[in-house]
Amino acid sequence: MAKWGEGDPRWIVEQRADATNVNNWHWTERDASNWSTERLKALLLPVRVEGEEGMCEVTEVSKLDGEASINNRKGKLIFFYEWAIKLAWTGTSKTGVKYKGYVEIPNLSDENDINEVEILVSLAKDEPDTNLKTLMKQEGAKKIRDAMKTYISTLKTEFTQGMILPTVNGEHMETAPQVAPKAEDRKTAARSSTAPSQSKSIGVKIPTCKISLKDTFLTSPEELYRVFITQEMVQAFTHAQATLEADKGGKFQLLDGSVTGEFVDLVPEKQLVMKWRFKSWPAGHFATITLNFNDKGGETEVCLEGKGIPASEEERTKQGWQRYYFEGIKQTFGYGARLF
């Protein structure tokens, strides 16, 4: 497989203002290396696990060597990625003793199944043996593998937008298989194109589904509600740039633009209703997310209901909310552990 920059120049088509690449016939190539570097760091740095022995967390991405690219030939996307990664981790025992170690991932690449990728956990030189190493090797490695799965998934969804079909007036068309129209349909379309245009819309009908999640946080509804509507607090638990206007009709952008939406209704301490979407969803499609905050006496139960989720995105959306919202809030603000 040709690496980035090594494709045959006769087949490479540069991005042009008129989006010329008829029927996606020519070879187009996009470098995903810089995007991948930032994405992998954002996914790996929040990794943290707890057990009877104590807590382990990734503290640094000390090495991230490699490259990634995507190629399009005749409408088929071909992915290339190859990374050598080294992480630093710190373990803290129940008694407060700290240990340092490393995680090495020698070959995260498209040639290996994600479940076969090696994750090597070790302690730093001169560190005494500890059960925290076992915790990191077992539970920590699982979370690291999940992070790599998410990277591969988003590489194949978010980053590929616009590679198959050209844009129309700046709006990305959905990359779905197209069927050649029948002769009668072509004639009808030709007649319609000469008539005065009343309205214009771009999009396709997609199957959708509902999701529901429930979690408990060791804080008050007032405080937890504030976490969801305060920009600085959102940036803290997502570990990424965010902008939001916490008013009815106010817009928001999270995870460096990967998530966007609008506040539909806000009932302080009780409920948040949002129009919400992943960047990779079909253009203009939003789901409706409702968060209900229930006071449980010293705890807050959050019930999430999502409607209009693209059926193909059901599991990813549930995992995203559980990981980046619920788990992120607990880990950042300490709402997941009781203090005695």
UniProtKB/TrEMBL annotation:
Domain Activator of Hsp90 ATPase AHSA1-like N-terminal: 29-161
Top-level taxon in the UniProt lineage: Eukaryota
PANTHER family, per the entry: ACTIVATOR OF 90 KDA HEAT SHOCK PROTEIN ATPASE HOMOLOG 1, HEAT SHOCK PROTEIN 90 HSP90 CO-CHAPERONE AHA-1
Family to which the UniProt record says this protein belongs: Belongs to the AHA1 family.
Protein name, entry field: Activator of 90 kDa heat shock protein ATPase homolog 1
Positions with biased composition (Polar residues): 190-199
Gene: AHSA1
Record's function text: Acts as a co-chaperone of HSP90AA1. Activates the ATPase activity of HSP90AA1 leading to increase in its chaperone activity. Competes with the inhibitory co-chaperone FNIP1 for binding to HSP90AA1, thereby providing a reciprocal regulatory mechanism for chaperoning of client proteins. Competes with the inhibitory co-chaperone TSC1 for binding to HSP90AA1, thereby providing a reciprocal regulatory mechanism for chaperoning of client proteins.
SMART domains on file: Aha1_N
Pfam families attached to this UniProt entry: Aha1_N, AHSA1
Gene Ontology CC terms: cytosol; endoplasmic reticulum
Leader sequence segment: none
Location(s), subcellular: Cytoplasm, Cytosol; Endoplasmic reticulum
Keyword set includes Cytoplasm: yes
Single Gene Ontology MF annotation: ATPase activator activity
Region of interest (Disordered), ranges: 180-199
GO biological process terms, semicolon-separated: protein folding
Matches recorded under InterPro entries: Aha1, AHSA1-like_N, ASHA1/2-like_C, START-like_dom_sf
Species whose genome carries this gene: Corvus moneduloides
Keyword tags: Acetylation, Chaperone, Cytoplasm, Endoplasmic reticulum, Isopeptide bond, Phosphoprotein, Stress response, Ubl conjugation
Coiled coil residues, start to end: none
Chief location bin: cytoplasm
